[in-house]
DNA sequence: CTTATGACGTCAT
DNA sequence: GATGACGCCATAA
């Protein structure tokens, strides 16, 4: 069987995702960096399993695209929250200005 | 310790 | 700009 998600990392990742204000997004790599690790994939594993309980659509890849299997579903949320999007011939991507930085957190 | 998996990242072509 | 390959981290068996 495939490796189950990192239980201990779960709460750490979910905590950060929960801090992302609406209309903003953070990349997997950034979140991993906040945890002091470079395990961008590990963050993804947590989201894949526990993401159902958090605003997973606020977590995107470095390229500005949402999860490969949920880009359509995420788009609905972005429009609902007014996230800055850039429309492209191939589809769309998240506006770089929409990227949330923990150091600029509004809390 | 080794192998396998993954909602990723970056570089090379 | 798209595709392929390797790297990276954490967990389970």
TrEMBL record:
Keywords: DNA damage, DNA-binding. Residues 9-67 form the Methylated-DNA-[protein]-cysteine S-methyltransferase DNA binding domain. One of its GO terms (molecular function) is catalytic activity. The keyword DNA damage applies. One of its GO terms (biological process) is DNA repair. InterPro entries: ATL_DNA_repair, MethylDNA_cys_MeTrfase_DNA-bd, MethylDNA_cys_MeTrfase_DNAb, WH-like_DNA-bd_sf. Pfam families: DNA_binding_1. It comes from the Bacteria. This is DNA-binding protein.
